Every structure is written in structure tokens, then in C-alpha cells.
């Protein structure tokens, strides 16, 4: 089946937040940060538009999946609306938000010093899993990276996803716990492939 993978736009934000919120609800790191099942959705409500603005993220036109990418030399806006922070404090508590900021700070320091594409998130809708949508989403940006001769980097806390990433050329370069008691994070790198 051919997938219609397009560059994500503001009009796709709500669909993407829904895909990521559901896709990361069982993610070990999100569960460590908060046991509440809507925490992942909260995080993606705050971050998705900032990644879309970088014009590297993709979505399946039919809503089967999405990615959030950061291109070489790009930086995600850190601006978060006060009302979102207030909502997060009321719903999840100060301790959860502090843990989130601490994990983010530790992971940010692990990024390679050379230019790279960074995959912040990839998720597929539950009913689209196993249909090849994840691979189609990955290939769109991986082709761009290969054509530019630039590597790709990601962090993963779900060991069962390692084979998927390895199938796309990523290799684990480090395993560590960003905070005491947190799940293991697998830092992964992919060298560009000559096509």
C-alpha cells in the first residue's frame, strides 16, 4: 500500500497530538515521569507545533502516523504558554514537571556535536501498526539526510522498538539512565547511506 506522507503543517497539529499522546501512553520514560495516562498527550500538546514550525516533521495524510524531526542546526522554540504550564502543575504536580525538565536537560547534553537530524518522536495510530506506516514515515526524512550526507540521532526508552530503528540503520551508541531510577535510554545514531 502506498502511503501519502506529507510535511506536517499547523492544520495537522491536533491529529498529530492525538497520535503521539496515544502512541507514547505506554512509553517507559513517560510512565516514569508520571503514572497518569494523559501525561504524554500534555507533553505533545506543548511541543508538537514547535517541531512543525521547523518544517522537518511528517504526517500520514490519512492520520496513520507522524514524526517530529529537528533538522541540522535547528533549535526548537522553548516558548510554552503560561496557561499550559499552569494546567500541567494542576494536573501533574510540580515534581513531575521538574523531573521532565531534568530529563530534558540531561538528554539535550547527549546530542552529537556534529550536524544531524534529530528524531524527537515517531508514532503510529493503533489501527495502523504493522502496516508499514512507521517505515514510510522514517524513510521520508532519512532520504533527505542521506542526500545531504548527514547522520541522524534519536533517543528511545522502549527496548522492543530497537529492532525497528536498527532496521532503518540506527545503532545503539550508549545506554544510560538520565535520572536515578529512570528507565534505560538507548541513544542511537545512523550514518548517512550513499544512494
UniProtKB/TrEMBL annotation:
CDD domains: NAT_SF. It comes from the Bacteria. Residues 111-193 form the N-acetyltransferase domain. InterPro entries: Acyl_CoA_acyltransferase, GNAT_dom, Trichothecene_AcTrans. Pfam families: Acetyltransf_7. PROSITE patterns: GNAT. This is N-acetyltransferase domain-containing protein.
